[in-house]
DNA sequence: CGTTTACCATACGGGTGAGTATGGATTGAC
DNA sequence: GTCAATCCATACTCACCCGTATGGTAAACG
């Protein structure tokens, strides 16, 4: 068996690679490519992280169901032979991509909000920032529609649980008694999730910018005590 | 070509059949079956509506992606030969099922709510009834996760639009000025949609009955003016 | 009672996508 | 430069599922 070692964790591990979960272009602009301006995408060697990023990119655009290895390979300019060197199976890619997303996609906002001194200003600031960075929540919205998939359920459970706890303490710090703070967090988070669903794939709240801002302010006035 | 006539609208149309969108058992307890208690499901002839109901049943349980004709046939105790007599293609079944759901699943609640005399009592009543009949919204929750499917988008757009308008007028009748009523309706509907997502497939708000009722009352107190 | 019509089974063709086998090409170590 | 490790291409198998073709059976009608 001269088969290469496509282990679960993949051979490439450790090292000072840049971990910032950039789901931008297909390839991460390789290290030393020949800088050709031809139509073909730049060629270099791929790593497992490249596949994970491409997978997250595809999930954000077309959902978990569209995650096919041959489609990904075409998009990356290679064939399946490359994929099955880095990953054992399609599920392992999904797991790795989800794990990666959970790790590096968490403290985008929460850590920034926690630095705000006045607790009463945190929630309005959180609402406004989330509303103006909806694009970064496309993976979450796509995963929300794939909750029938057994692999995404635990990830989403953990992420939603953490966000819910953050919201609950924020509402407590804003002056609500504990029981009300928990329910208000549930309501707020449900409104957030529902808005993602209704806004992305369905384009239901067909509203322009200023109307959207007015909606956000209405949310703030309705949900945040003060 | 001795091929039978599987037209779009299907041959069976009109007639005093019971239209109540019952997504209960696999077969609708046929007209004159032999009432056997054997393990095999009761045998009779199937109609297009039986297939549509079974399709909605399957969609509610496993999502739109799991709607396969052979799986449905197995579940109904027949083979594909039966299906392709009633329907021309798989898409036509989906369209028929969605159309059926849109028609008969609409005025379950709205018509009942409209009969309430006092407008200020309508919204709390609506909230409580919807909260205690979540099971009938499983199809809507499943369709919500299939918004990348082109066939479900127009249906969901129409249904959501109607419900949004109903909510908007209800909030106006409850005393809110028009602009605020619209935004409050958006917020309320987003909370409804998000709760469906977080509750069904993800079991996130792991709360018992009295805690759930408390949450509903919190929603009423927070979102409904007065 | 026989014939037509409605409904279903069986068997097949075709397309898609996951996973495997294996050899070739590229890179880095020495 | 050589050799081994790493990465990728090609070709294949297998399973699943849509749709078709066609013959069979039970119900409806005369």
Structure description:
The structure is a homodimer of 226-residue chains. The first copy, chain A, is mainly α and 226 residues long. The first copy, chain A, folds into two domains: 20-105, Arc Repressor Mutant, subunit A, CATH 1.10.10.60; 110-223. In chain A, 58% of the residues lie in helices and 0% in strands. Chain A contains ten helices and no strands. In chain A, helix 1 (48-62) crosses helix 7. Chain A starts with 47 loop residues before the first helix and ends with a helix. The model of chain A is unreliable at 7-20 and 22-41 (pLDDT under 50). The A-B interface holds A 62-63, 65, 144-148, 153, 156-157, 160-161, 164, 179-180, 183-184, 186-187, 189-198, 200-202, 204-205, 214-215, 218-219, 222-223 and B 62-63, 65-66, 144-148, 153, 156-157, 160-161, 164, 179-180, 183-184, 186-187, 189-198, 200-205, 214-215, 218-219, 222-223. The structure holds a DNA duplex (30 and 30 nucleotides).
């Amino acid at each position: 068996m001269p088969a290469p070692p496509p282990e679960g964790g993949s051979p490439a591990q450790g090292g000072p690679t840049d971990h910032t979960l950039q789901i931008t272009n297909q390839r991460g602009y390789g290290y030393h490519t020949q800088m050709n301006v031809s139509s073909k995408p730049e060629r270099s060697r791929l790593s497992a992280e490249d596949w994970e990023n491409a997978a997250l990119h595809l999930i954000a655009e077309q959902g978990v169901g569209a995650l096919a290895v041959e489609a990904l390979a075409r998009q990356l300019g290679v064939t399946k032979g490359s994929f099955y060197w880095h990953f054992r199976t399609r599920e392992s890619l999904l797991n790795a991509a989800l794990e990666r997303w959970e790790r590096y996609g968490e403290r985008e906002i929460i850590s920034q909000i926690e630095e705000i001194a006045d607790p009463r200003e945190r929630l309005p600031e959180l609402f406004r920032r989330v509303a103006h960075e909806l694009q970064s929540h496309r993976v979450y919205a796509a995963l929300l529609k794939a909750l029938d998939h057994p692999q995404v359920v635990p990830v989403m459970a953990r992420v939603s649980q953490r966000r819910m706890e953050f919201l609950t303490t924020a509402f407590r710090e804003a002056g609500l008694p504990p029981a009300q703070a928990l329910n208000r967090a549930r309501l707020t988070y449900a409104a957030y999730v529902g808005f993602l669903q209704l806004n992305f794939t369905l384009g239901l709240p067909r509203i322009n910018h200023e109307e959207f801002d007015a909606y956000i302010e209405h949310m703030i006035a309705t949900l945040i005590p003060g």
